[in-house]
Amino acid sequence: MIAGLLSAIALALSYVRSLWVAAAVAVVVYLIAARSRIALLRVGAAAAAAAAIVAVGFWHPTVQAVISRGRSVAGYTEDASALARTDLVERVVPEAVAPDVIAGHGLGQSGMGAQVGGEGSYLLADNAYLAMVYQSGPIGLILILAALGALWVLAFQHVRRGTAGAPLHLALLTMFLIVGFFSDIFFGVVGAMLWYLAGRILASSDQLPSSSVAPATRTERQISTAS
Fold this sequence. Notes:
- By secondary structure, the protein is mostly helical.
- The protein folds into 2 domains: 1-76, no CATH class; 83-213, no CATH class.
- Helices cover 69% and strands 0% of the residues.
- The chain has helices spanning 2-14, 17-34, 37-56, 61-71, 80-96, 112-115, 128-161, 166-179, 188-203, 218-226.
């Protein structure tokens, strides 16, 4: 519960609305996948503690700023950031699918205009999928989406099999996929985290379901201790 409470406070202070939404969806996915009363109680206790902190410090400027930031999620149709992202899609997609650049502009080109101070600063896309289609073209985007989709299905199958850690893997992957609409998840530190998670999911394919691992008998424990 303490870890969950600290995580909630850290997320709130991050001031990143997309991460709030992605984390909330990930928690719901985890609870559904885990189907554990203990997990539900822990999340509920952490949420209650966070609500109590907000109630106690309601008039504090930091709390008010976080609440105001959260309310702005509902008003995305009038939000400057949301409108800018929509405009970015409308400008980048036609350029990315043009016949002469059907294979993309090359990896690493997204954001290059902003880095060198050129006029193409709008290419600094806070959208992993938009950045991918610009760099690798429609075919590259389709391939990466197919790989991520297959990975999500595999994680879901692990949940059905009862593989240890599968609910957390599915929840984290879902969170990454949502964050991808608002940040580049394929490169940098975040990219390393995503591909590490992908490796964990693939490695879990060789694990036995947690329910099928029988506890060691007394004789087996004695043999193990003696050896």
